[in-house]
């Protein structure tokens, strides 16, 4: 069991005046799967004209707000206290034969089908199936380790719109790209897989001080085991989820769980600044 204080500040600055904007924020840590959000507050400047929390189809908390006064910057500051629990291991292994017929399950079929950033292709199925010979969960751990070993973590070479084939070609990317790749491989092989967004505790290199604001949001994937539920794997770090992970939302891919999205009237050219701190208490 671990407790974390999470400070997530997003700031947009605009080259011209924004007349008004409508936004959706998905940044509050989830309260599920043994994770408890003990407290949370959201500060928005300029103050929104209205704000409402709604749960989406996947159970994520989405904060809808609008700013109707003119502004040249917008700041969204989320502060949370979260308790995570040790992740329970699977009671048993799962095997490919157990996954037949899941397309008829209304809650699982969307995590088997293509989504905007996750294709389902025969070539990906051929790549994935050898990993599952000793079992699906063991295979997912080995696949995450394979991606960690064979793909370079390299910010700046991809964008939020980068496709799985492009990630394969580059053999490089960031956590979003590697999560999409692993999800695509699993779905192509008939294994339900979903995208998870959140945070992970990071530690400075030995002898170096921790830099404030230097953390970031993180992404990994969750794999379904029939009769047992969902188990999370992180292909960026090549391991299964531990209590250092803090979940905010789940969806088919990044398009379902983007931390911030909205419509801006005016503003010219925007610039984005994000600072995140994940501090173990």
UniProtKB/TrEMBL annotation:
Coiled coil: none annotated. Gene3D superfamilies: 3.10.620.30. InterPro entries: Bac_transglu_N (IPR013589), Papain-like_cys_pep_sf (IPR038765), Transglutaminase-like (IPR002931). Residues 167-237 form the Transglutaminase-like domain. It holds the Pfam family Transglut_core. It comes from the Bacteria. This is Transglutaminase domain-containing protein. It comes from Leptonema illini DSM 21528. The lineage of its organism: Bacteria, Pseudomonadati, Spirochaetota, Spirochaetia, Leptospirales.
């Amino acid at each position: 069991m671990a407790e974390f204080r999470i400070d997530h500040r997003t700031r947009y600055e605009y080259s011209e005046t924004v007349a008004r904007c409508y936004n959706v924020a998905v940044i509050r840590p989830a309260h599920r799967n043994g994770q408890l959000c003990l407290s949370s507050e959201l500060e928005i400047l300029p103050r929104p004209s209205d704000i409402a929390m709604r749960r989406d189809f996947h159970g994520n908390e989405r904060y809808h707000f609008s700013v109707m006064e003119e502004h040249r910057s917008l700041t969204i500051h989320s502060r949370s206290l979260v308790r995570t629990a040790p992740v329970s291991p699977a009671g048993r292994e799962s095997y490919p034969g157990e996954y037949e017929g899941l397309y008829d399950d209304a809650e699982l079929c969307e995590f088997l089908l293509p989504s905007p950033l996750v294709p389902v292709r025969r070539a990906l199925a051929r790549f994935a199936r050898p990993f599952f010979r000793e079992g699906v969960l063991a295979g997912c751990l080995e696949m995450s380790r394979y991606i960690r070993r064979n793909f370079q973590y390299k910010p700046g070479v991809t964008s939020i719109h980068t496709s799985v084939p492009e990630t394969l070609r580059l053999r490089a990317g960031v956590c979003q790209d590697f999560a999409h790749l692993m999800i695509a491989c699993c779905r192509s092989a008939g294994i339900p897989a979903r995208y998870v967004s959140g945070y992970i505790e990071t530690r400075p290199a030995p002898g170096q001080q921790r830099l404030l604001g230097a953390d970031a949001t993180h992404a990994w994937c969750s794999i379904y085991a029939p009769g047992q539920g969902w188990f999370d794997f992180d292909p960026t770090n090549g391991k299964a989820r531990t209590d250092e992970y803090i979940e905010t939302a789940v969806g088919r891919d990044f398009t379902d769980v983007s931390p911030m999205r909205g419509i801006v009237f005016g503003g010219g050219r925007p610039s984005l600044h994000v600072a995140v701190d994940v501090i173990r208490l």
